[in-house]
Structure formats: structure tokens, C-alpha cells
Amino acid sequence: MAGIDLATEPDFHLGNAQVRPAFLSLVSPDDEIRVEPRVMQLLVTLGRRLGHPVGRDELIAICWSGRHVSEDAIQRAVAKLRRLGDGCGAFRVETIPRVGYRLQLSHEVDGPSTPASPLLAVLPFDALSSDLELGFFADGLADEILHMLARGTRIRLIGRASSFQFRGEKKAAAIVHVALGASHLLDGSVQRSDGRYRILVQLVEAASGTVLWSDGFESAEVDMLGVQAQIAAGVANALHHKFGPEDRRLIDPILHEQMVRAFRQALDGPITPADVNRIDTLAAKAPDYALGWAYASEARNYLRMRPEVGEAAALSLFKEQRDCADKAMMLDPSLAPVLLALGGLQPPCGAFTERERLFRAADSYGWLMPPLTYLLLQVGRSSEALTNAEIGREREPFVGPVRMGHQLALAQLGRIDAWERTVVSDLRRHPPAPHEWATIAQLAALFGRWPLVDSLVARIGSETGPPAGPIVSEALAMIDTIRDPSAARCRQLVEALERQLVLIGHAPFFPLTVASALFDRGSVWDIVARSDFEKLLQPGARLGGAPYNTAALFLPHAASLRGDPGFAQLCQRLGLTRHWREVARWPDGVETMALDLA
Description:
The chain is an alpha+beta fold. The chain has helices at 37-48, 56-63, 71-88, 132-152, 160-163, 173-180, 224-238, 253-268, 273-285, 290-304, 311-331, 336-344, 352-361, 369-378, 382-395, 400-412, 416-429, 434-446, 450-459, 470-483, 487-504, 509-518, 521-529, 559-562, 566-573, 576-583; strands at 12-14, 17-20, 25-27, 32-34, 54-55, 91-96, 100-105, 119-122, 126-127, 156-157, 184-193, 196-205, 211-220.
């Protein structure tokens, strides 16, 4: 097989970067990077087959002229190529286990100009009255239309949590266009008189403010389902999309809106038993409405994860959670929140494949994106998590878990500069919640970004930062240990892991990985050996969210842990290896991990 003569190899483009083999350079909009000859040969070979796998033997034949070469030499060259792609942001290198490697364009890079499909923001409808009940009706009507469009069309949709923040003067097309990136807006107003509703709607092209479609409807409340279907069909037709209406029971928009608000307020948390009771009361008012029972199930899932909830209470909540999910499933098995509720019944480890199936089956607009992103992070499929998180960014840019999922995907991939730029941009726009602040601050410390750490600490107690509390205090203690890993501090960290081992039966993953990065891994593997991870494979088990679950195992600071021979057994105990084999997809950077791929 012929090798590559770089001197005669023509230039080519990868996204917005130009590869110049003869000059051993890669030119991006911001920089020109010198490339080693061997790395350039790899880039040319993989670039010729962009998007398709190239076998290891073929790479050796072309880039090393068929000479005998060690696995370590190949991995070093591939690692340099990966860093090159991360640095310019134009491409990424994926490992195909037992096959070879594949070059893919980065999703952050604009490719050739193609007409973009519509991105629609459904805004909260105006209630043309000071009547509070009519306001609930107007919001509920708009949200039901959003659900109907999500299920009946393939139009890309901004999620409610972001689009419903624009009210009054903020609903101007130019403002929403800039803030959300939406190409089109659906807006409307509602009046009520003598028991009848007058609804006016219009579809607007956001960039120009041009009205593409408008209509008016007058209806009694009992006929509202037909009105919603007509509006959804009108929008789909104006955007040249098909609309397939469903035979699905809807309820009074006021009650629907009360349910949605009660659930979202509970998630803004910390969630309490009173929040769960409030959602139960609303669900009981419409016992044949699946959404209410799905929310009741998910509310219990969040409540039982609270650290102050004891084991007996958590078990009781899980049984109630399962009962509510069963009711929702019987009523509407394809509704996205129902599928999400079913995912919440699965064990936090071991059932990764089933959870992925449920999350992918769910409607994927808006706030339903984070569960799939966090699942992919939990199993180390970081590139896929980043792709999913970028879709979430597009559809719910104002939602904290969406932002965190995107940040964590960048962190897992080792794209630390991109991670820091994203974090700084997010902090400028959105004050972080305590758990968000704690995650960013601890990762910044692990990445050695101390100016960022210091600026985050300075925010505590201010309008742009979290209030002081247990979450912040624990994070500050961990940051102090990372900054000054003295023998005394490391001993305190081990003692804390030992206490958790007694309390919950296993070592928490994030502090475990920090400990492995700071001192002798022998102590860490001793704690791992005594941890009862098998309980995490049982329904009803409790485990924190990323990065405090298994997602921590795939962060850069845990590289030495992943390279240890004990990592393969740990992954088997957690059900990770079984999942990777079931889906035939392995974690990013698998070639650097001590795993048995046979």
C-alpha cells in the first residue's frame, strides 16, 4: 500500500480550517499551527476517508510504510492529532474498538452554507385582562400547542423554560431572535367574554419581523382541543412541515399550566414534601391525564435523592414513584415525560442501555435533553454527550442543567480552554446555583485555572454567586485540598471517604477520583475493593448526578485511575462494560484505558 508524499499532497479543508500538508501546517481562522510529519500523515490518511473508519493495519502501512511499530507509538501519534483537533476546534478523532480510528468534523464548526431548518420559539400568549386565571389559561394554551407541535411535526423547537421568559416588551422579534437564535416565533393573545375565548395567533419570521401566517379563533372551552390542533396545523403548513394530529386527551389549559408551574417550581428547589403534595393534588383533579402522574413520579424521584431523606423514607418514596409512573404509562406510554419517569425507575448503574433507550424514545425538545446528555457522560461517551448537549443549548439556552451538561462534556474531552471560555460566558449571563457553582469551582481547581477559582470564590454571597451553605462549604474544602495537597489534608480526604463508605456502603466517585489524582492510588483501590457497588445495580438505589456519579471516572484528572489494571474490574462491577458491549460503543479515549475489549 502506497505511503503519503506530503510534498505533493494537495491542500484541503476540514470545516473552517485549511490543512496544508506540503507546509506541515494547519491554518484556522485564529492561528497557524505547525504539525509534525507523522501527525500530518495521519491527518491526511483519515481526512481522505472523512467520516469512515480506517483500520489500524492500514494506518501502519500508509503512515509507517508497513514497518513494525509499537502500540504505544500509534497511540502517541493519535493523541497528538486529537490535541490538534481540540486546539483548532475543526475536527475530532474517534476510536472504533478493534477496528481503528475515524475523523469527524466538529459540531462546533460551521460547514458549507446550507439552508437551516426552522427553529421555532412558542412564546407565552398574552392574556388581555388582569384576570390571573386567564393568564394561566393563556400560558397553558401556548404550552399545549408546543407539546402538540413536538409530537405532531419534525420542527425544531425552543423549550418552554427559555421561550416563556419573554413577556411584554421583551417579546419583540428582534430581541428573541438575538437571545435564543430562533428563526421563527409563534405569538398570540387570549380574550374571554361570556364563557367564550377569542384567540389571535401569528407566526413571525424573527430576523425581519415579517408575519408569515395569522388567524383568529373563537371557541368555548370544551372545543379547545380542536383550536389547538388548527393552530399547530397552521404553523406547520406555513413552515412547510407536515402535521400529524394525535388522538390524545388534553385538559383545561388552566389546570395544565398549574401542573407545569408546580413541577418546575419544585425543580428550582430544593424540592420538599409540600411540593410533592401540591403536584399530587393537581394530578388528582385530572386522573386520566398522563402528564400529571408523570410529574408526580418524577417529583418523588428528585425528593428521594435529597441527602436528608433517610433510607426507609426513600424506599417508601420509590414505591410511590413507581405507582405514579405505572398510572402515567397506562394512560399515554409515548408521552415524553412518561418515558422520562420510567427512566427514573431504573437503577443508577447497570441499566445504562435501558435508560438510553427510554431517553432516546422521548420527545427530545427542551428540558428532556439533559437526561440523555448526563447518561452519556456517565458511561464516558463524551463526544456523543457533547453533540447532544449542543442540541440542548440550541433548544433550552437558559436552563442550568443544559449548560452544565455542555460544560461537563467539554471537560471530559479534555478541551479545557473551550470549557473555560464556555464557563466564563455562562457565568456572565446566568448566576450559578450552588451545585453549579460547586462543580465549576472544583473542576477549575483540578484544571489549575486558579484565577477562575478565585473569581468564583469572590462571588459567594453576592448577586452573581451562590449563598453560603453546605454545598459551597464542601466545595471550598475540596478546593483547599487540591490547592495544597498536604499530608494532613489528604488524610482528611481519605477519612471522609471512609465515613461515606460506612454511611452509604460505597465511596462517592468524584472525591474518589480527586484522591487518586493527589496521592498514592493504593489507598483509593483499597476503598474501591471494600465498596458495595452492587447495590447501585438495584432499582431504588440512590446516586448523585454528574459529575458526582460515574461521570467523574472519565474526567481528565482521573486518567491515572483509568490506566490502572483495576479499572477494568471496576467497570465490570458498575455494569459499564456490559453496556459498552450491548451498544457496541466504547468510551472516548478507550485506547488509554486499562480495559479488556475482547
